[in-house]
Every structure is written in C-alpha cells, then in structure tokens.
Amino acid sequence: MHLAVRTSGDPTALAPSLRRILAELDPNVPLSQPLPMASLVRDAVARPRMTTFLLGLFAAVAAVLAVVGLYGVLSYAVARRVREIGVRMAMGADGRRVLRLVVRQGMRLVLAGLVLGVVAALVAGRFLSTLLFGVRPADPATFLGAVTLLAGAALLACSLPGWRATRVAPAEALRDG
Predict the structure, then answer these.
(1) Three-state DSSP class for 26?
(2) Rounded to whole angstroms, how far apart are CA atoms 103 and 29?
(3) What pLDDT is attached to residue 129?
(4) What spatial distance separates the first Cα and last Cα of the chain, rounded to whole Å?
(5) How confident is the model at residue 40 (pLDDT cuts 50, 70, 90)?
(6) pLDDT tens column, 149-162
(7) If 110 and its partner were Cys, which of 9, 32, 101, 154 is the partner (CB 3.0–4.6 Å)?
(8) Is pLDDT at 177 greater than 90 in this prediction?
C-alpha cells in the first residue's frame, strides 16, 4: 500500500508528522521511508525502460550489420563483375552509368528489405506497444525517419562499391579475365 502526500518541501521532513497521524488512525499500519513521487515513478518504469533500451540497442546493431552485409555483398558482386564492367567501360560507358548500375542493383535489395521491414515492424508494434512511451506503434513520423535513415545508410553502402567499380581500368579488366 502506498500513501501519496503532496508537499512543497522535502518529504522526509514530514515523516514524523505522517507517522503520528497514521498511528492515530491505525497503529498497525507502518510508514516506511518516504520517497519523492519521481523516485516511485522511476522505479515503476525501470524494467520497461531497460527492455526498450536493449531492444533499441539490438536494433541499432542489426541495422549496422545489415548495412555492412549489404556493402559486402555488393563489393563481392562488383569484384565478380570486373570483366563485365571493364567491357562496359571499353564500349563507352562512363563512370556515372557504372555507378548507377551498381547502386540500382543494391537499392533493389534495399527496397525489398525496407518493405518487408515496415510490414514486420507494423506487426511487431502491436505486440510491443506496452514498451512504447510517447509514440504510437504505427507512428508515421517514426517510420519515415527510420526508413530514411536506413535508406541513406544503404545508399552509402551501395555507393562505395559502385565508386570502386568506376575506377576499373578497361584494359586491365579485360587482360585479367
């Protein structure tokens, strides 16, 4: 049982008066150490806050791993296509076209992942709604921010192998094949 008392000062200073009043009302009701309301609220939401923090941390790690994985897959794909890229450049393709080709290939994967991720987040949001504070499970601003952040990181992950592909010397690519 909790007793809430509104005070403008320190709640511990009121403890003797509260003990006396409670003893008059019912001598069997003990008064433990008085605490400020902010402390009670902080203790009440400590576990959900920690759970939410850990979920956010794991989500951030998963996003970094996804971007690094995308970078690795595209780097591998570009390395496997060095001869093709060399032929394209020998036939007149400029660096922008090669960059666009590689980025388009990667962003197709990203688009599919973002669509699946948004659907999964909408479904998971219904189950995790008790852990959300100050935001609805299907908040459009949050979804837009997350999609924009992930798409931007993925665009960077796609651009780096694409930029390296533009540096392929056609003569060396054809000779090494």
Answers:
(1) coil
(2) 71
(3) 79
(4) 79
(5) confident
(6) 989 998 998 899 88
(7) 154
(8) no
Whether 168 and 102 have beta carbons less than 8 Å apart is answered as: no
In angstroms and rounded to an integer, the radius of gyration of the C-alpha atoms of the chain is 30
Identity of the amino acid at 85: I
| 86 CA to centre of own chain | 38
Token pair recorded at residue 128: 């995790």
Average pLDDT over residues 35-50: 84
Q: Tokens 């054809």 map to which residue? A: 174
For the residues of 47-62, what is the DSSP string, one character each?
Answer: HHHHHHHHHHHHHHHH
- Report how far residue 57's alpha carbon sits from residue 51's, in angstroms, rounded to the nearest whole number: 10
**Tokens standing for 160?**
């780096």
Among left, alpha and beta (phi > 0; psi -120 to 50; other), residue 93 is beta
Positive or negative: CA dihedral 25, 31, 35, 37: negative
Tens-digit pLDDT profile for residues 126-173: 887 777 777 788 889 988 998 999 899 989 988 998 898 888 777 777
